Amino acid sequence: MAVSEWGWKYHHTGIPTTVRMPDEKYLPAFGFYVSGFDSSPFGIEWMRFEEGSPVDGLIQRVPHIAFEVEDLDAELKKHNFKIITAPNSPGGEVRVAMIEHNGAPVELIEFTKKNR
Fold first, then answer.
1. In the 3-class helix/strand/coil scheme, how is the chain assigned residue by residue?
2. Which of the listed residues 6, 53, 55, 60 has the most CB atoms within 10 Å of its CB?
């Protein structure tokens, strides 16, 4: 439904890990390391969290799937999702939010047109 009816586009799958991965990049504002996305043909992204990371515990424990959306605010309003991470800009010309659906985290990503 997210793809066929709402027009969302698959972006990546984020998988929490406790294992140090090759080529990790540290995101200090979120207290975790991320790796793999740039080299994975399937959009697999590994996330290794530091103790005390401010990221919601569900995201730290359960893999998430991410979708690119045209208008993040409109999608959040239209579907009345349970928001676990409010819309924010982790860097560059991108905005993200995390929702919970049936106990699983789902990330919504909005890019500016020049970054698509």
1. CCCCCCCCEEEEEEEECCCCCCCCEEECCCCEEEECHHHCCCCEEEEEECCCCCCCHHHHHCCEEEEECCCHHHHHHHHCCEEEEEEEEEECCEEEEEEEECCEEEEEEEECHHHC
2. 55
**pLDDT digits 0-9 by tens, 61-82:** 999 999 999 999 999 999 989 9
Exposure letters 81-98 (e unless 16+ CB within 10 A, then b) = beebbeeeeeeeeebbbb
For the domain made up of 9-115, give the CATH fold.
2,3-Dihydroxybiphenyl 1,2-Dioxygenase; domain 1 (3.10.180)
